[in-house]
Amino acid sequence: MKSEYIDRPAILAEVTAAFYRYEQALISNDIAVLDELFWHDDRTVRLGAGENLYGIEAIRAFRSARPSVGLDRQLNNTVITSFGEDYAVCSTEFTREGSEKIGRQQQTWVKLPCGWRIVAAQVSLMS
Q1: C-alpha angle with apex 21: 75 to 49, nearest 5 degrees?
Q2: In three state form, how does the secondary structure of 7-36 look?
Q3: For each successive 10 residues of the chain (127 residues), what is the average pLDDT?
């Protein structure tokens, strides 16, 4: 891919806004927005720190059962890269107050007719 297709300012701004909208929904437990921003498909995958979720229904079930306290976190080393006009990867580390663990999150975003959606996500923790 030619470098002029990577991180086009308008595309990067769109996906960055979607990423931070997701982050705000995550820490405020806004399940409707979290659901909206994942691709509604059986092929959507979210590999979590303690769970492997395949398909939007499994992701929805996880979200609805997740505790809604202690969700605030601090992001570090966030890197958002867009490729062309409809594909991006968002990677970040995070920490939570009271925990020594460093979390890592990576998301693959695709711009679909309904807007930017997460099609694959991975979350892990390291000591």
Answers
A1: 50
A2: CCHHHHHHHHHHHHHHHHHHHCCCHHHHHH
A3: 90 98 96 97 96 97 88 96 98 94 97 98 94
The long-range contacts involving 61-70, CB below 8 angstroms and separated by at least 24 positions, are 63/31, 63/34, 63/35, 64/31, 66/29, 68/29, 70/96, 70/98
Nearest residue to 96 (alpha-carbon basis) of 31, 27, 2:
27
Helices (H), 66-124: none
pTM of the model: 0.94
DSSP string computed for 99-110? ---EEEEEEEEE
Helix, strand, coil abundance in the chain, percent, nearest 5: 30, 40, 30
Q: Which domains does the chain have, with CATH numbers?
A: 3-125 (3.10.450.50)
> What is d(CA 8, CA 26) in angstroms, rounded to the nearest whole number?
27
List C-alpha distances in Å: 19 to 14, 16, 101, 109, 127: 9, 5, 22, 9, 25
In one-letter notation, the amino acid at residue 95 is T
How far apart CA 117 and CA 119 sit, in angstroms, is 6
